[in-house]
């Protein structure tokens, strides 16, 4: 007999798997389908990326029971330093002691392991890994996906969580606005002489931002940070091919002595940067979450957090509706989800795109204007508090799942 579940989630990355687990904690069942092998995704060295988890996103992980698994693996972000080319006039976002941290840094591998382990223990989640989808269907009676081995999975609501290149979104004909920045983000782990003191650095150069994100020390006490270095598309290949010594020399040229000597660099990888935003995030028995709906520049570290806000809002809407006797694919519920998430996601996307463009304007005059503006914000507590709350994700109409 077919195993019909409430949700049919297509895409088992960080956002898709968090959705499945969050839904299960509210009594909502799901199929989750992903083409990847979990063993590959959690292998050492598969993905050197790290993610900043905001206060609101950490509340979500706490509310779904992941905090104990993740707590020892995260590095607090105590403050954020923002500077234009390391010149005077920088911004220092440091909350008061009673306000807690600005977030936590986690290796993506650690997030995946925690999510995968929790999902494998949850009976309301049917996890279909290493599975290709050959057909998707949505009609008045429900949704289905046919897998490459002939199995057919059924649900009431289809969720597109496959990321930026979502085939489910494209097959549904949802209009998408997008452009590329002609830049690539180079990702690497750095080991350095001085402690980072839990400070995240965002250093803006004309070619793009140069971010240094605090990570936990190695077991031998060596200090670590994650590097996200934006370079022009034409320069990316050459930068990746630099010897470790030459690469570290370029890093040191851009950060000065803030970390002392940078002693080693881990494996390097890169990915292209672009912007996209869909005209709508729902269709008949279909909801989009995460990068399937909105892809933004990593300038403010909000990409994953934006997807987790989608998760919190969608599960809140569906669970509340199901308590009233509505089924998950009900058009009223999907409309509520779109109204809740559409404006917030669009606002964040525009803000990150605006920052990217403002800090990319070349010339001494533009730099001087930016530094004057940052100095003004530095002297205005109410503005600093606003930006810190935005970084924490604790502004606006928050889903209950994202509240402490």
From TrEMBL:
Q: Which GO terms describe its biological process?
A: ubiquinone biosynthetic process
Q: Which domain of life is it from?
A: Bacteria
Gene3D superfamilies, per the entry: FAD/NAD(P)-binding domain
Query: Which stretches make up the FAD-binding domain?
Result: 6-341
Q: Which UniProt keywords apply?
A: FAD, Flavoprotein, Monooxygenase, Oxidoreductase, Ubiquinone
What terms describe the molecular function in GO for this protein?
FAD binding; monooxygenase activity; oxidoreductase activity, acting on paired donors, with incorporation or reduction of molecular oxygen
Look up the record and name the cofactor or cofactors this protein needs.
FAD
Q: Does the keyword Oxidoreductase apply?
A: yes
Question: Does the entry feature the keyword Oxidoreductase, yes or no?
Answer: yes
Q: In which pathway does it act?
A: Cofactor biosynthesis; ubiquinone biosynthesis
SUPFAM superfamilies, alphabetized: FAD/NAD(P)-binding domain
Q: Name one Pfam family in it.
A: FAD_binding_3
- InterPro entries documented for this protein: FAD-bd, FAD/NAD-bd_sf, Ubi_Hdrlase_CS, UbiH/COQ6, UbiH/COQ6_monooxygenase
Protein family (similarity comment): Belongs to the UbiH/COQ6 family.
Q: What is this protein called?
A: Ubiquinone biosynthesis protein UbiH
Q: Which organism is it from?
A: Pontixanthobacter aestiaquae
Upper lineage is:
Bacteria, Pseudomonadati, Pseudomonadota, Alphaproteobacteria, Sphingomonadales
